[in-house]
Amino acid sequence: MKLEFVEDGELRASFILRNASAAFANSVRRAMKSLVPTMAVDYVDIYLNTSCLYDEVLAHRIGLIPLITKLDKFNMPEECSCGGEGCPNCQVSLRLNVEGPKLVYSGDFVSDDPETVPVYGNIPVVKLYKGQQLMIEAVARLGTGKEHAKYQPVSVCAYKIIPNIQVSSECSGCEECVKACPRSVLEFKDGEVKVKDVLACSMCMECVNVCSEGTIKVEETNDYLFTVESIGSMPVKNIIQKALEILIDKAKGMNETLAVLGEES
Amino acid sequence: MFPVRCFTCGAVIAHKWEEYSKKLEEGKTPKEALDELGITRHCCRRMFLTYKSVVEEFARFHGAVG
Hints:
The complex is a heterodimer.
Chain A lengths: L1 E7 L3 E7 L3 H13 L3 E12 L5 H10 L26 E9 L2 E4 L4 E2 L12 E5 L4 E11 L10 E8 L2 E4 L8 H5 L5 E4 L2 E4 L10 H5 L5 E4 L4 E7 L5 H29 L1
Antiparallel strand pairs in A: 1-2, 2-14, 3-8, 4-6, 4-8, 5-7, 9-14, 10-13, 11-12
Helix pairs in contact in A: 1-5
Chain B lengths: L16 H9 L4 H8 L4 H8 L5 H7 L5
């Protein structure tokens, strides 16, 4: 198995996973989506809320604001030495104390930890009119996407098979397949049909269906093209790395269980 | 209030809302504004296109009852 980066950005990356099984590709995708821990507000103490939004709507909006996550700095609440009660090692509180008229932004939250702050400071939370007040303490903790979508470190996280497109030498060059392709994967050059951009192919098989001679073939391979977009809480590369670490840990755990079972029988 | 995230894909979109409304005020079409902001998926684009603020209307009647 091999990883090749096609596009490598802080927020958006796409890479090719070569020579892997579909099961492995899918487990990588699922690990990135639902097993990588992320910081998000989970518990909100509302001391005063005279805004137009109800407490629960406000709490929901605050929960969805992405926070910068330093994974080595915090423990998962259930694994923390405090036993999940809440301590500086597993949670951060963000305070908000404002009075209208004012448009409250995510950047107005005052965090206990200068490193755990909203990724974007300009997310509008609620609009306060004259005399309306907010006194809020929001408690953020680590969680996984399994628990709630707000803990997902990625928004788009998908893969597709990179096909193997072959045109045999019996092709008459009618160009029907080139015209039929909705993603312009094929091109007609020097009297023959050539593959221009395999990565764009969605395997819709339009070219195969339209070909009257049956000279074009689109086959599945063991190569996958992943597209991952981060929410901003951490760079995509870190998410991929963390997801793979989690998969390794899980595989180790599985091996141990199997070894124990083998001894028993 | 403008939704923090896209309902379908979960990408954060609210941080681009102010820029978007500024671009509309400048006289740009929604298409131009969204293209410039790099919002490419149609799930995220419809969040901007179909949003209607009602906070102001709420505020007018806030506290009027009870």
